[in-house]
């Protein structure tokens, strides 16, 4: 780096979303002191404004793509896609959280600020072109999420969730960092492009082995973050214990962006040694799908069920990575967007339904929801059908593109086993539909309030998005395809 | 926008309108469903003329609009002589199903009729789609409303039956999806007509192993739907537990999705593989025919009896298709339609009985003919049609199938013919136990004869059975034309096959020759 390095205007433009959100988050923490107790809700509105501004900034930044800050950051279609996605996830999770926090009498600025910081970290990850930046982004995002998971300090489940997430997450991050150290030792750089070039002309067989080890270590770190087998054990406990809107957020945003860096690192820096990591990703994908789906069959708690389902869905995205082709990248991008929408929708229903203190989180409690609140149940049915992968929903097209990518890469068995897995998965999603529509309403229906504005908005946005992605997938897919070439 | 597009999308429109109607106003919902489904039927009548006059190998009302650019997926639909009648069957049965559900569905009325119309949308779409992706979309879309129809409005074990139905089909379609994507990767298109032309001209070449696996991928999905023995176990459960309208749509139209798929896709696209597997498939079909009939004979439950009779009847269809003869193909399609009409009518009549007595057990009846003579007459005619009595619809189908298959597998055909005899046994026995004998006081009391609504349901179907059984040509002509086109690739191969084999000597002759 030159000593007299001065960032240009374009450099600032390219990290404008991060700047806006960092400032916004800090501002929110500062002004809380001046606000009276009953005005705290205005902070949510401010958070929304910050998110909206960041969203606009992310779109504007896409107008001037390129590298900035000495090649540490890159703004390209891929980065913009994930920036918009995680900011969108942030907005939707904010909508659900407002109502939740009011219900639990726990409104405070911390929640909003942490949410902003977490999304900031994710945006950095999405744009990072360098391993240290990835690490920094990951830490910003993760630490904020650890705290969010334990947001209700007096709730035992929240505490358990946060502690588990923190301990295991730190452990996994250590692996990632160790991997980064190895690759730096091997290639002398942390820049993805430089690493790739170094690996294209390995001086000796030894450096390939060293790079392979580094890739394996980093794989552990990423696999943990995306909850891919065999590093998925934390997910059900953490998802179950965390506040419902936080689970909603965790299962969509951090996961999507973890996949983004996974893809970027493995498809650029480690592209030259693809044949070495492909079998590992292949087996991990299969294992993830099988563990997620079969474990979900036996769950009675809906948060836990959705946690296992999110593991299974991580497995489908791993299939796209195993395909290691451009169409696989596009498929993964599309799938993550569709997955975020349908999963947010499902967790928003859970947030609504669980009521104060999250008393109603068993599947059986949903009995009769289809007739008590037909609209909510109808939207939930759309999310579930999308998670099953029924056509005309985003989930179906996502799966379709992923398995198409797998077949393009000649992974015929992985495609067959994956699709059969999705038939198994149909069972546990259908069980929820069964309970909702085919069982008589029980006591759990008595205290059910109508859906509030915040959760209602989340539900409708997610449902319309899911259907749009299912009926007109072309727009998003074209964008994903155009930005799927990660090696420039 | 062609007339066909209107027929496809009107049910979807009706579905959306029903969703918007207030749920308390039951009569408005019923009336709207009836009027809209009747209107769809009337519109669909307009399809007939153009299909009749379409040139062989051409689809009438073809629409080909891009839907998604990459991968290129088109909204490509069209009708030929085979799909025409299956679409008509769907549009005819939907208003009848609305009528039969008029009184018998008493909870969640709005959702019931909405799902019925959504089901019609899916079913019509399946038969019109000429793009594999579109076909798959409709194939799965039709699954969802049926799942709800069985699961919400069914009988006691409805949840089990609905899940089983969904999961069986889902497992099959997973394999089909892999096959579809594989074909796309080889051909670069999902378009059925282009793929078929490419495969026949050799522009798309598949090795024989690939053909075999692709054939099996499609075949298993279709065989589950048909259902072919031994994949039929979901069917009795689904039929018995479904409400009357669900059973009718399931038996009359939904099962035909499987046989239609076999005829339209499996056989013409992979003729070599089809021929390779034909022996096994024919054996399974004949086992299905005989087994279905035998199991039907011992059922104490009327719906279960009719369900197993479907397994038997659909076995004939598969037998006809895998005989690869014009007669076999024609018979198969005719049998699909005849089965649709006659078994649909049987389920409706069983539904009438159930509405009166709230039991499906044969034992709960006896002597129904005395208090309800017209109901008994209608049942009699329908039953005779289902048995395959000449002058009624099923006879034509079964006869053509048997003739077609006897050209190729004479000895096996004998066993298939047994199935037709067994059909007479179980149906006549059923009739005897339910309608003859002395009616108990209690039964007489609860057994009024057909009312106006029920006449309106059953009379059109009975007339149709008579028409199909006597003036066959009015249905068969377009079917034969389209079948001849589908038969092209596989028939051509057959001639080569025959020429390549030395003249066969029957075993008996060979022994004689050896003895000399």
Describe the fold and architecture:
The complex is a heterodimer of chains A (488) and B (516). With 488 residues, chain A is mostly helical. In chain A, strands 1-2 form a two-stranded antiparallel ribbon. In chain A, helix 14 runs antiparallel to helix 19. The longest helix of chain A is centred in the middle third of the chain and has 32 residues. Chain A is globular and about 70 Å long. With 516 residues, chain B is mostly helical. Chain B has one domain. In chain B, 77% of the residues lie in helices and 3% in strands. A two-stranded antiparallel ribbon of chain B has the order 1-2. Chain B is built from 22 helices and two strands. The chains are: A mainly alpha (488), B mainly alpha (516). Chains A and B meet through helix 16, helix 17, helix 18 and helix 20 of A and helix 6, helix 7 and helix 8 of B.
Multimeric status of the protein = heterodimer
Shape assignment of chain A: globular
Class by helix and strand content of chain B?
Answer: mainly alpha
Taken in chain order, the helices and strands of chain B follow as HHHEEHHHHHHHHHHHHHHHHHHH
Alpha carbon gyration radius of chain B: 23 Å
Poorly predicted residue ranges of chain B? 495-513
Structural class of chain A: mainly alpha
How confident is the prediction overall: mean pLDDT of chain B?
Answer: 85
Q: What count of structural domains of chain B?
A: 1
Q: What Rg of chain A do the Cα atoms give?
A: 22 Å
Q: What kind of sheet is the major sheet of chain B?
A: 2 strands, antiparallel
Largest sheet of chain A: 2 strands, antiparallel
Give the termini separation of chain B. 73 Å
Helix content of chain A: over 70%
Question: What is the topology, as strand order, of the major beta sheet of chain A?
Answer: 1-2
User: Total number of β-strand segments of chain A?
Assistant: 2
Task: List the total number of helices of chain A.
Answer: 20
Question: How helical, in percent, are the residues of chain B?
Answer: over 70%
